[in-house]
Design goal:
4-stranded antiparallel β-sheet, 0% helix, disordered N terminus
């Protein structure tokens, strides 16, 4: 499986995510060839880890709200800080990933909330735009 380049900008990190033929994002995990354990993101050790396309839907397992500007370093964002939600998203029974949560009011967050993968632009200090992943509430059918 080889990721197709993002249509608008490259991912913020290698081996993190890819895009299918329709441009839909997916996360890249790795399955340990010996023990079968699933990890995210895909490790660089290709002899040990087989690439796995992770599900793009999941459920909120836990969350918190980042309400204050983190210390610098490592935080290198703008001085004007906007609170944001961070959650653990269960992708099936096999793996839970940490992600920013977008498109949802803080008071609407609840354990079990159905979520879908999306991408968000991220501007580097150089001014270059990259894409990172996030999860948003699943749209009703």
């Amino acid at each position: 499986m080889s990721p197709i380049p993002a249509p608008l900008a490259p991912p913020i990190a290698d081996r993190l995510m890819g895009f299918d033929a329709d441009g839909a994002p997916f996360l890249l995990g790795g399955r340990d060839r010996v023990g079968g354990r699933l990890v995210f993101p895909l490790p660089a050790d290709e002899d040990r880890f087989e690439p796995v396309r992770l599900p793009d839907r999941g459920q909120l397992w836990s969350w918190t709200i980042q309400r204050f500007r983190p210390k610098s370093p490592p935080y290198a964002g703008p001085a004007a800080f906007t609170p944001y939600a961070v959650g653990y998203v269960a992708l099936g029974e096999a793996i839970i990933v940490e992600s920013r949560l977008v498109g949802v009011a803080f008071d609407a967050l609840r354990i079990g909330l159905p979520l879908r993968l999306t991408v968000e632009p991220f501007t580097l200090d150089s001014g270059e735009t990259r894409l990172t992943f996030a999860f948003a509430p699943e749209r009703p059918a």
